[in-house]
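Hi Y.,

Following your request, here is the sequence exactly as I used it, all 149 residues.
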Amino acid sequence: MQSPSPNARGALRIFLCGDVMTGRGIDQVLPHPGDPELREDYVRSAADYVRLAETVSGPIARPVEFGEIWGAARDLWRRMAPDVRIMNLETAVTTSRSFAPKGINYRMNPANAPCLRAAAPDVLTLANNHVLDFGAEGLDNTLRTLWSV
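Below is the corresponding structure, written out as C-alpha cells. Let me know if you'd prefer a different format.
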C-alpha cells in the first residue's frame, strides 16, 4: 500500500463505505458460490435472493466476475481518487456451518474473496454485528482469508 499524500490544498481525501455485504445473493453469482443455506424466518436459500433480483431486473449471467459486483461504483471511485478507502465488511468469509442463533447470518465463500480486492480498500474493518455470524471458527476463517487476499 502506498502512503496517502495530501492533495494540492493539503487535504486528505478519505472514502468511507459501510455495510459491504458480499454474502447471500452476491456470493451465489460469483465464480465460487458457497453453501446457500440460510436460517432466516422467510428465506432458506441465498439462491432465493438471486431469483428475487432476477424477477425485478432480469436474468443475471453467471458467474459474475469479481469486480463486476461493484458496478458503476468503481468508476466513481476512480474519479473521486480518494487517498484512502475504508470499508466495513458486514460478511463472514467462511465455509463454516456454525450458524450463530440470531436469524440473519451473512457469509461468503473464501474463494470469492478476490471480489474484495477488486474494490481496492486500504482498510477493511470488521467492527459490526455480523463478524461472529459463524462463531469463532468463522471469525478465524475470515481473518485468515483477508490476510491472504
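The radius of gyration is 16 Å.

Thanks again,
Q.
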